[in-house]
Amino acid sequence: MTDDANGMHAAVAAGVLAAENDFADLLRSVVEVARAIFGARASSIMLFDEESDELVFAAVAGAGEQDLVGRRMPSDTGIAGWVLSSRTPLVLEDVANDPRFAREVAEKTGFVPSGMMAAPLLADERALGVLQVLDRPKRARFSLQEMELLGLFANQAAIALSLLDSTRRARSALDGVGDISVVARLAASLTRLEGPRRATGLALLEQLELLLRP
Amino acid sequence: MGEPEPELDDDLYELPAWSLSRDSDGWIQIANPLPERVDREWALGGATGTGVRVCVLDSGIEDGHPRVGPVARAVAITVGEDDEPVATDDLEGDLCGHGTACASVVHALAPEAEIHSVRVLGAGFSGSGRALIAGLRWAVDEGYDVINMSLSTTKPKFAEALHELADQAYFKRTVVVASAHNMPVESLPWRFSSVISVASHDEADPLVFYANPEPPVEFFARGVDVEVGWIGGGTIHATGNSFATPCIAGIAALILSKHPGLTPFQLKTVLYLISTNVGGSGT
Fold first, then answer.
1. B12 SS3 class
2. d(CA A57, CA B116)
3. Class of domain A3-172
């Protein structure tokens, strides 16, 4: 590659990488705020990895935050799996009464919660993951307002995940993976050209753009 | 010269009635099943759900759970060729607790109703939506009286198939009770007028339910901090429209056990008339 092409690739790659870090910070911020607002012991976002059909911990605040990120579980497991596939939020108290559930969660998080709130992260028609809030203080009654608040946080996390998803697609295009990688290769080739060939290439691309315009 | 007249096919008379002739021999007469005044005593007083088959389309049900009783039949649905549903006997029980919870809400209201489980969640179904459609198709073909759907899909490509199934159920006198979404997203099938859609109120009485003057959500039922059955024979407290939905399914089972043969249209009218904010007392 010429210096120019290398430069462009490096710049875009750096941008994508920076964006990925920003999204990780954003997701972390969502779970931290969710945990603080609900006064909960922990909060987490799990991302649905369609290829492996697994849920992956993408951000964790509170108990278990040290080593949970990156941990995976089958996407049809337990409450999170139900919330993902049914696309419906739910709130449970006294979950420790269910020994199977308690053991399963304890293995994942290192502690047994007594209650949990979980909402699907929905972007258009896709379920991108699950937001969980564990062990909010058990006040007199759970309120419908809290359910709405959970939905709002889930919506914010879904937007962040949706952006992260686009960024990752851009990254795989740059790395020559995926069906739109041809666009990245074209851009790289164009930056290598000079003089009349560059002008012709640009003119051709402009015509292609006109042709593809919806 | 005209064409010879075609022979009339006797089967022609078996076709549905697309029109009404004046010499229709009275088959058009319908005895109105509703009294002049529909109240809770008429609708469900003394009813227990006897003779009504309720299908819980969910994650499976724990058979013999103290809050559910015996499960009459449990199947797991997989999607076969051409998206046809394939039902096999379900020996897994409940994979997460949710289906057992929904069944326990129905059972608490209509203890004599037959509970059937159609499992469409778990075992690699995550996010497919196809299993949901296949499960609903199977349940509609089975002719259940009530189908409880505490779940929805956000995929618009399933809208047509779901709409068709919801209408098919409606005309076959199968009442589909579906959870409205708690979040500001588009999902189905609860938005269809051929089903009964349910969201939550936060009162404690399971017989208090409200007709919504501003649909598409049609009814509000008890959905906050509900004590429900859970896997392992125990109970937990749960919140969500998932648990309000079987409340209305249970009440529908009570009404149908006392007044079998009501159409979904008539049943929805009765629910409206006896809802707490219209004509029902709430007790």
1. helix
2. 35
3. alpha beta
